[in-house]
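Sat 14:20. Reprocessing the chain from the morning session after the first attempt stalled halfway. Input below, unchanged.
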Amino acid sequence: MRYGKFASVYDELMEDIPYEKYVEWVAAHIQSGRILDLACGTGTLSQLFNEVGFEVTASDLSEEMLTIASQRFQEAGLSIPTLQLSMDNLEGLDGFDAVTIAIDSLNYLEKETQVQQTFKEVFEALNAGGHFFFDVHSIHKVDAVYMDSPFVFDGEDVAYIWHTEPGDYPHSVVHDITFFIRQGHLFERFEETHEQRTYEIKDYTAWLEAAGFEVESITADFSGEAPDGESERIFFHAKKPS
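Finished this time. Tokens:
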């Protein structure tokens, strides 16, 4: 999908995401090697992976996101290649020791066949013994937490009003967000609509195994603990057999 102007405010809206914990999670299982950071957004996680010693390739479908990511890498003096790719079509990429799809990016795929194809593509991109790390929204978050809108954010330079409604599919949500961005003494208004969909844990597990993966762990909310009925973010660690 295209993010449009959303890319320009993405970092400010994601300030509460503990990216360092994501790096710690990955680094607890693999300490070096090549990482493909799919749906990299503005490149925050890619940069952190690079800074702890990984050889990183950053990929996203959004040209706007990649533009900001490339600028981030250049300003930091980092040589991180970027690719504009959909996560369900990796065009023969291979030779990676780990692949990440972070911060519920997988939930932007509309159809379950796209999720299944993504798992197959990631499997092919990994070396034998390679690791796959991703997180998704829980059923509880999509069906209950998100339905408690509107949500309002009032920052110094960015504000938004965020409405949600159920999508066309089970466990899907439509986000209608109106942004106000400071431009000098005035605020520019723009609107964007984003759609996400999630599935039962057992579905993700079955699709991973069908792609050839061994599921190493399923945890929740950066806790390292097993998910429960109130969990909002589910983390999967899978491995390609050696």
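The first strand starts at residue 34 and ends at 38.
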